[in-house]
Structure formats: C-alpha cells, structure tokens
Amino acid sequence: MTDRTAIAVDTDRLPPVLPGVAAAAVAALPPRLHKRLDATVERLAGVPVGRVDGGVSVDCGPEALVTLTPGPTGAVTDPDQARCSCLLTPRCLHRTAVLVACPVADRATHPDPAATSAGPSTSDSAGAATGRTGRTGKTAGAAAGRNTAPTKAQRAAAEALWRAAAAVLAAGVPAAGAVPQAELLRAAHGARLAGLPRAESAALRTVRGLRAHRERQTGHRLAELVEVLHDLLYVSGRLAAGDPDPALVGILRRAYQPDGTLDVYGVCREPVISATGYAGVVTHLVAADGRRLSFGDVKPGGPDRARDCARAVTEMGAVAVNHAVLARGGLRITGTTVAPDGRLGAGKGVRATPIPGTDWSTGPLADLFARPLAEVVTAQLATDDPEDPARAGTALIGCDLMVVGAVGDQVLARELAPDTDGGPDRAPVPDGPVIRLVPANSHPVLAHVANLRRLASRPGLRIRVVGRLDPDRASTLHPLVVGPVPGAAGTLRLPPDWHGRADLGYDELQGGHLPPRDPAAMAEPVLAVGADTVAESPLWRVRRLVELAVSGGRRAVAEAARGDAAGLAGPLRRAGFTTAAAVATALADEADRCGRDAFGRRTDPDSDRYAWAWLAVTVHLAAAERELIRSSWTVPPAG
C-alpha cells in the first residue's frame, strides 16, 4: 500500500544517490532534454514527496510518478532502484531530475556494492599493512619511502577529473548545472574505480558546493567552494602529469587500529553543528603519552541536538560515557581502537574504567600551555596533512591571556609572559600582538557569544584558554574552554564541580564567576588594536578575482579585468606583492584570450590554460595569506 500523503518538501528527505548512478542517468538522457534538466530540478522544490514501502515517491505530473527504493545502506546504489511510471523510463526527464536532486552519497557510509566486491585497492591495502595508528602527516607509501608513479588507469581517471573541473571553472557556478555536475560525478566514479580516494572526495565535495551555492543554502560560503575546487584541480592536475607523490592518492578509508590500553584525560566538549545536517558533541582528550584524541557523538540532526548532547551518554563498547563527566575526568580504556585522525573507537571489545581527572597545571594537560603562542602557531601553519588538507591548523592550542576589551563580538586579549618570577598577576608579553577571540559557533542555542561578552566586560581579567587557530584571519583564536590562571588574583572563580574549566559552548558564565571590576585595568585603550594584516593588505583584490572566477566564470573575469586592469596590479606592486600581481595579471589575460582556428575563426578558448592560470593564483594567494597570518602572531600589528 502506497501512502501518497504529502510531506514538507526538502531534498534532504530524498535518499542519497551514488555518483555513478546519477551520472549514468544524465548520460542516458537524450541531448535535446539537457537544456530542460536544470529547470525541472528547480521545479522539484514545489513537488510533494510521499512515502512508499521501502522508499519515497515524487509526483512529477500526470502519469509520471518517480519511485526511489534505497538499498540496505540507505542509498540508491543501483539504477533499477529508481523507476518512473511514464512510458519513456528509464531515459525520461522525470527520473533523471529526481536523481540529480538527491544528495550525493558518501562512500564512507554508503559503499558501492560493485566497488566493494572487487576487493581493496592498492592504497587501502598499503594503509592497512602499515598499521597506522596516528596522524603522521604522510601516507603509507611515503612512510615506507616508496614513491610509485600513477598507473595508466589512474592517470586517465585524473585527466577526466581535470577536464570536468576545468570546464566547471570556465563556466562558473551559474552555468554549472546538472550536466556539468554529472560529468564531475562520472569522473569521481572513475577515480573511485582507479583507487584515487583524495581526488574522488574533492570531486564530490565540489558537486555539493556547487549545489549549495546555486541553491543559496544557509551557511555555505563561496570561499569553501574555492578551496575545494582548488584542491580538485591541484590533485587531478598533478596526478594526470604523472606526479609520484603518494599524498596525491590519499587513503581509501581511515581504519581504526588496535592501540592497547590508554589513560585519557578530558579537556573540553565542543558542540558540532554541520551545514550538511549533522550535529552533536565531540569531547577532546589528551592521552598520558601526550597524544591528542577525541570521542564524539555526531549524527544527523540540527542545532537542538548539539545543545542536548551537553550531558549526553554515548556507548563506548560496554560502557556508557557521559560527555560532561568525561570532559572533566578521565578513563582507562582497554581494547582501544584509534583512527589515524585521533578518534577513539567504540567497538564491542572496548572496556573503560573511570579514573580521576587532572587539572591543567599538571600531567599531560600541562603540555598544552608549555610553549609560547607564536611558536605553536608557526609550527601549525608550517605543517600540512597531505591526507586531509582541511585539517591544517586545527589542533588545539592552549595559552594564558589577559582581556583588554572588545570589538563587536570579538574579545581582545594579550598573551601573558611566561611564569618565571612566580608573581600573582603576570604582565602581558611586551609588544605582543593583540589576539582576537571569536566565537567558535555563533548559533543562539549555544553559549559561545554570551560567554565571550561576559569575559569582555572585565578588562584585566586573566584567563587560561584552549581553542583553535583561525587559519584565515590574523591573530585570531576560536576559544572552546576557559579556566583560571594558576596563582593569579584577577582570574575566574569557577564552582568546584566545574573542576577548573568552563566549556564555552555549554556552561554559562555568571557575574559571580568573575573578579570585581578593576578601574586600573583600563590602562590600554581598545583603539590601540592594530589592523588585520590580511584584511587590510591589497591581496583582497586577488581574493576577489579568484572568487569571481568561480562565481561568475571566465567571462566575468575577462570583463572585470577590462574595466579595472590598472587597479588590479598597481596596488599589489606598490605594496611589494609583485608575484601576486604577475599571476593575477596572467589570469586576467588568459580569461580574455580568444581561440582561433586555422582560418582565423573564433573558437572556444582552451580551458586547460585558464585552469592552470587560476590554480597558480590560488596557490600563491594561499601561501601569501598564510605567511601574513604567521607574521601577525610574531610581529606587532602596524597602526
């Protein structure tokens, strides 16, 4: 029996579809229907979605009912799982549009039956054989000292990805509709079969970013799409050229590996609200040997789930773990399994016993505050994870700060000098940078913004902070947890049951937790804060050009360059960014270049040269901005 009761229209209610299935549907569609595909997908936003036995149905008009029946993994993994009642099925517009409107399946949770039956790829086998248990910054092949050139099949798959990505870049987001996206999905499927997990992941994230930007989804940023498209072109271009660097291949999956018995101590809880529909909590831990670990409960859900997980209980093997207790205590875990990125497993063989926690001044937690900020930040920015470039600069950082004021929702602070004389209130580092503390998540269901406002109301307050570096902004931290500075008089006064720390996303600071106001602490005016070296540098012109290339396409870059050619390179050269001026000018010139055939007739310009020019600009821009950010932690801000 079919239940045709209409429910709220939302593509998130449609099951995910494997890239190969969606790409095959678009390829089978007659070319005369390609121009109508995007409009049909947009009209699905007003079409009722119903439930049927084992799946969903989409009413696309008279005698056109599309039925999706996902497999055991919850995703559409076979073309026969998508059917339309019209006479043109399976080469009909209705079925193809519904498949294109569905979310792209993640291979980690929805494996491809055809791929899994073929056995593990070489990259996966290499990763399993080495027994990798920590984040080393190298792939298995690199760790073994082997740089194997890509196979012929891998180079062919990389070339297909490069062509599809270059076409999307030249067209721009407005023209990157269902058909160009299907070419990317087809190339991503080829990368999967060829054993190129990093390139495949970048292609799928690019498709998701294109859809989010075209649909103007809340929380999506153009800069994120620029970053993932850059990674896709960078990886596929180097692989297609035969680069033997194993980091370009990546790893097929990050398998959990046995790690014996571990003593772990809680640092803090971090709320998670993802733009892709996941929410929950992650508790950050430090092992007795100093490794940074985490244990999370992140599942499909919204902001309310992230809030409700503050005291949630999650199963770790045969033990129920309360995140609020774990964040301030410790566990002795036997039968431990650890992923390469530090995530603790929760398999059936895991056993855990509570042990007393430790404060931030002793034991392995004290190592978080052992080095000056400038030294820690420099080390983080100089280290990339080739298996996951997005993780660069995301490790937890600890520091002791003095609050000096606020600007908007940012708390301004100065780093305290090392504790060498044992004085009650340490002074800030002489000529040190003014550090901006920005909410890790500004969602109103969380307490980040309110807590930072409370801290900003006490200039002169000494606080111990654990957070993350913002790799895109000068001298900026995202604090996750705060506590009192040992031995300081003007510091936090937290309740005993908080064990000396306040999770800024969950615990709510009150007036009684702060010391009395000290008028003498207003000696340093907020107006003395220097400018953001990244935001105020002329590199914003290059950033705007790079983003315009993605959002508007090649034609938009050419038109912008014609109207402001002198305004682009001149300020860059005068500020000393001569290389940035050269690569930006080369991109503008390439965007405006017209191809001609042997008879002098205009032809479509070469998208390869344009893609390489854009890639050169993005690579240089990322390096230049990272160097500016690094210097903002070590050099006093100008102004």
What structural class do you assign from the helix and strand content?
Answer: alpha+beta
Oligomer: single chain
Number of helices: 19
Gross geometry: globular
**Mean pLDDT over all positions:** 82
Order of strands, widest sheet: 1-2-3-4-5
- Beta-strand segment tally: 22
Residues in helices, as a percent range: 25-40%
Rg over C-alpha atoms, rounded to the nearest angstrom: 27 Å
Main sheet summary: 5 strands, antiparallel
Query: Which residues sit in consecutive blocks of at least 5 with pLDDT less than 50?
Result: 1-12, 115-145, 385-389
Strand content: 15-25%
Alpha-carbon distance between the two ends: 72 Å
Describe the structure.
The chain has 639 residues and is an alpha+beta fold. Helices cover 35% and strands 18% of the residues. A hairpin with a 2-residue loop joins β15 (396-407) and β16. The longest helix has 26 residues, at 607-632.
